[in-house]
What we know:
The chain has about 270 residues and is mainly β.
Amino acid sequence: NFYAGIGHDDASPTVINNICYENIRSGIGISEGSCAFVRGNKCYNNRRAGIGVRTYASTQPLLEDNDCYENDMAGIGASEKSAPIIRNNRCYKNKLTGIGAQSHATPTIIGNECYENGRSGIGQQGDAVTILINNHCHHNKASGLGFAPCKSGRSTVINNRIIDNGKIAVGINPGWTVQLSGNELARKGGMPPILMVFKGSEAILTNNVIRGGGVAGIRVTGKVRAENNEFVGTALRKIGPPNFAIWALPGSDIMLNGNKIQGWRH
Length: 266
């Protein structure tokens, strides 16, 4: 189909157990105030997203238990101020991200599994405001969670497992304020840091576990406030590149309180 396989324009039906594939745009498209209930569908090989949600804060569908895979952009995408609840879906092997948020979207993303995507498991840009709870992002080619440069994005990240992604667990670029609490950020092997906080961004970390090797648990050129976290080094090297629990570069702004650090060379 030229647009979506199933399209919603200010309509809110129940959409269950459909197969939507090889459409020019999305497998399922939701916009213009639609509050559809979309459950148990398979959306794959679409040129944009498997499920795409856009236009207006009043567009508030519930997307639950869908399989979105091998799409040319995201498995599930939210944009243009839309506010979907994205819950317990499986998004994998998409060319860009498993779940993507952009253009001031405000999705709530809960309990999803995002893996083997071309860039990030969950990717955010364009001043989005996101809530991420209990997601499992693993074996994505770039990062588990990606926060691309923007003007003023915000995210609350609670109790997620971000494991064994290709480069870093979480990358926070300029313009973002991200609060991370109760997460497990880990990677076996590799040289990049587990968490990267760039200049012009802020990360507030409480009660997280950051585990791995590489040059650092957190590499910082921005602002970090870290309390009661556990930094576990797993690949101590006698020689070679740095191996810091926290690597603060010139111009960074860091406050640490009550953290436990073990197993790092520096």
